[in-house]
Specification:
Elements lengths: L6 H29 L3 H27 L10 H14 L5 H32 L3 H34 L3
Helix pairs in contact: 1-2, 1-3, 1-4, 2-5, 3-4, 4-5
Length: 166
């Protein structure tokens, strides 16, 4: 990682990581959807896949506001989160239990993205990049909604998972 000399550099550095994360998530969400049993959960993953594809495009636009070409830098944080997700995808468990594990894994990814986009938005704001703030707002809202939808899924599905313990 090159040494950032300004908040502007930090922003671009983080954006390169976020761009990598979104591309990896776009590849993982279809696998999560396939692994899910509950239709409600499959639907949540499908919806968020479409949003994630838009997040990739928005990230590309964001590079433009900072006079940069889109460039992904390997994001070890999301790689770790997604490798835990891969373990869950391969899990042999009763469907409600596996769904609970899928929700947990996906929420780790969403919370991570919410943290990163919150930071990017705050930095864009102080850097006076109004257009960037607008795009980041939209993406951040969608990440938060995806997380809420997963919480909704969990509130009904986790009861079924708990019932499987007996
Ligand atoms: Zn996203
Ligand atoms: Fe997301």
């Amino acid at each position: 990682m090159s040494r950032p000399e300004s908040l502007n550099d930090l922003f671009v550095q983080k954006l390169k990581h976020v761009y990598d994360a979104e591309q990896r998530l776009a590849k993982t969400l279809p696998k999560l959807s396939k692994a899910a049993a509950a239709p409600q959960l499959k639907q949540a993953f499908e919806t968020h896949l479409k949003q994630t594809e838009a997040h990739v495009e928005r990230a590309e636009q964001l590079f433009g506001f900072f006079n940069q070409k889109p460039h992904a830098d390997t994001n070890d944080n999301i790689k770790g989160i997604l490798s835990a997700g891969d373990d869950v995808i391969g899990l042999k468990a009763d469907p409600p239990v596996k769904d609970a594990a899928l929700i947990a894994a996906a929420q780790c990814a969403e919370h991570y993205e919410i943290a990163e986009y919150g930071t990017l938005r705050a930095w864009a704001r102080v850097l006076g990049k109004t257009e960037a703030v607008r795009l980041l707002d939209r993406t951040l809202e969608e990440e938060k909604n995806a997380d809420l939808k997963l919480t909704d899924c969990a509130s009904s599905l986790n009861f079924q998972a708990a019932a499987h313990a007996h």
